[in-house]
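### Sample
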Amino acid sequence: MMRAAFGQAVTPWPDAATDMTEMLQAAIDSARDTGHLALPAGRFSTRGLRLPSGFMLSGVPGATRLVHLGSDPLLGAEGEANIVLAGLSIDGSGAGGEMWHGGLVHFADCENVTIRDCVVSNTALNGITLMKSSGRVENCRVGGSDYTGLFVYDAAGVSIEGNTIADCGNGGIRVWRGEAGADGTIISGNRISGIDWTDGGNGQNGNGINIFRADEVIVSGNHISDCAFSAVRLNATNNTQITGNTCLSSGEVAIFSEFSFTGSVIANNIIDGAAAGISMTNFNDGGRLAVCSGNIVRNLYEGSETNPDLDTPYGIAAEADAVISDNLIENVPGAGITAGWGPYLRDVTISGNLVRDVDIGIVVSVAEGAGAASVTGNTIIGARQHEMVGSAWWDLISSDLAGEAERFPQIVVEGNRVS
C-alpha cells in the first residue's frame, strides 16, 4: 500500500496497468500539510503530475518507477519553491510534446529545486529542464533523450553535480540564456557520453556541455566522451572556467570558446582523441581574452566526420589577447599551436609549451593587418615539416620564423628549443 507521511493511507496497487494520474495527484495534494509523499517500489502509470511548494516526492531508488502515458512533461512545477525529487525512476515511454524545450521533468520559474538520485530516460523531450529556476541536480542518471539530457535556461544559480548523462540525440548538458548575462551555473563531476547531433548543424548540436550567452559558469572535473562535436563548447560567454575535465573522442574541436566570448580560462584538462584540441577564436566577432594553460592534448584525428570544414587538425588555437602556456601537445597530423587567422591576431603569447610529433610546431599569422605575438621558451620535438612558420590565411609566408625575425618585427621569437 502507498502511504503519505505519518502513515496516512493513499491508494493501493502501485503496479496497476491503469492510468493512476488522478490517484497520484490526489495523494500529492493530500500530503501538502506534511510536505512529503513517499512512493513504494513498483510501477505507476501516469500522466502529468504537478508539485506544490515545500514538497518532497520520493521513491525507492531503482524500484519506484513512473511511466508516462501521455506527452509533454510527466513531472514538475511552475512558480513554486523548495521542491525535492528523490529516488524516482521516470520513464517517458518515448513520447514528446509541443512545449518549447520541454523536459520529461520540467520546472519553470521555481526556486530551490533539488533533483537527486533519480533516473530519467526514454523521452523525445529533454530529460530534465530548469527554466528560470535555481537549485541542484545531483547523482542522477539521464539517458535516451532525443534532445538534451539536462537543459538549463536563464538560470538563477544551478549546481549540476555527479550525474551520468548518456546517449542523447543532440546534447548532454546545455546552459543557455535568452540574452547574455550572469548565470553562475556550476557543472562538476559529471560523466557524459554518447552525444549525437541528430538535428544536424555545425556546432549547435552534438556537444557534451554547451554554454550559450551564460556568464560566470564553471565547468570542472567532468568525464566527457564520444560526442559528435565538442566535449565542452562555449558561445558568447564571459568569465567562464573550464578546468580539470577529461575529454575523450570528440568529433570536432574538443574544447571550443567561440564567437563573442571574453574571459575564458581553459586549464588542466586532458584531451585524447579529437579533430582539434582547444580553440579560442572568432576575433572577427569579438572573441578575445583567454588563458590556456596546463592542458594535455594528444592523438588528434586527420579530420572531422561531422564538420568537413575542419580539415586541418591543430592542438591549440587562439586569436586575440590570449596566453597559451605550459601545455603539452603530442601526435597531431597538423599544427601543434596556431596564433591568428588572416588579420585576426592581437597580442597572443605562446610560452613554455612542449609540442611533440606534429606536422608543424607553431603557426603565427603574418597576414596584412595581423597584430603582435610572442613565441618564447617553447620546446618543439619531431616536427615533420616545419618547427615555426608564418602564414597568411592558407599560404605559407615563412617556413622559419626564428631565422627570419627581421621580416616580422611584430612577432617576437626567442629562446625556443627545437629538435
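Residues 1-168 form a domain with the Pectate Lyase C-like fold (CATH 2.160.20.10). This sample (Right handed beta helix domain-containing protein) is used throughout the tutorial notebook.
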